Amino acid sequence: MTPAQAQLVEQIRGSFGPKTAVTDPEAIAPWLTDWRGRFHGSAPAMLAPATTAEVAAIVRLAGDAGVPLVPQGGNTSMVGGATPPADGSALLLTTRRMNRIRALSPESNLAVAEAGVILADLRAAAEREGRRFPLDLGARGSATIGGLVSTNAGGTQVLRFGTMRSLVAGVEAVLPDGSVHEGLAPLKKDNRGYDLNQLLIGAEGTLGIVTAATLRLVPGMVSRAVAWAGLESPARALALLRSIEARTDAVESFEIVPDATLALVLGHVPGLRAPLETRHPWHVLIEAVATDPGAEPPTALLERLLGTAIEEELAGDAVIAASEAQAESFWRIRHSISEAERAAGPALQHDISVPVDDMPRFMVEGGAAAEARFPGTHAVAYGHLGDGNVHFHVRAPAGADPARWYVEQGPAITRFVHDMVVAAGGSISAEHGIGQMKRAELERLGPVARLSALRAIKGALDPRGILNPGKLVALAPGGRTP
Ligand SMILES: Cc1cc2nc3c(=O)[nH]c(=O)nc-3n(C[C@H](O)[C@H](O)[C@H](O)COP(=O)(O)OP(=O)(O)OC[C@H]3O[C@@H](n4cnc5c(N)ncnc54)[C@H](O)[C@@H]3O)c2cc1C
Question: Which of 52, 220, 254, 377 is deepest in the core (most CB within 10 A)?
Answer without folding.
Answer: 254
